[in-house]
Amino acid sequence: MSGRGEDLLAGLVALLLVPWIVWTMMRGLREGRLPIARSHVVRAERRGAFHALLGLYGLVLVLVAAIAIDLLFGVRLWNFR
After folding, report:
1. Angle at which helices 47-73 and 3-31 cross, to 10°
2. Dihedral (C-alpha) 60, 15, 71, 5: value to the nearest 10 degrees?
3. What is the pLDDT of residues 26-49, one digit of tens each?
4. What backbone torsions phi and psi does residue 34 show, to the nearest 5 degrees?
């Protein structure tokens, strides 16, 4: 595969992750528990940990969306290449 083809494939995979992350966050807010590894953090039991994990999910959402935009549209948000 060429460099541009690999960028498109990786960008599409990152773009497909965005709705899954949003769905996980919305379900976690609705049900009051967020998945972590093979367990869950329940809001009623560990409120601070729940909000910290929700913040990490939000950070991952922003980063994955930025990576998808960078790879699909060639915006070059980072100058690593």
Report:
1. 160
2. 140
3. 999 999 999 999 999 999 999 999
4. -120, 140
| Global pTM value | 0.87
Cα separation, 66 vs 71, in Å, equals: 9
Beta bridge partners of 33: 42
Integer-rounded Cα radius of gyration of the chain: 16
Query: What letter represents residue 58's amino acid?
Result: G
pLDDT tens sequence across 2-30 = 778 888 999 999 999 999 999 999 999 99
Greatest CA separation found in the chain?
A: 50
For 1-81, list the strands marked E by DSSP.
Answer: 33-36, 39-42
Six-digit token string for 74? 């060639």
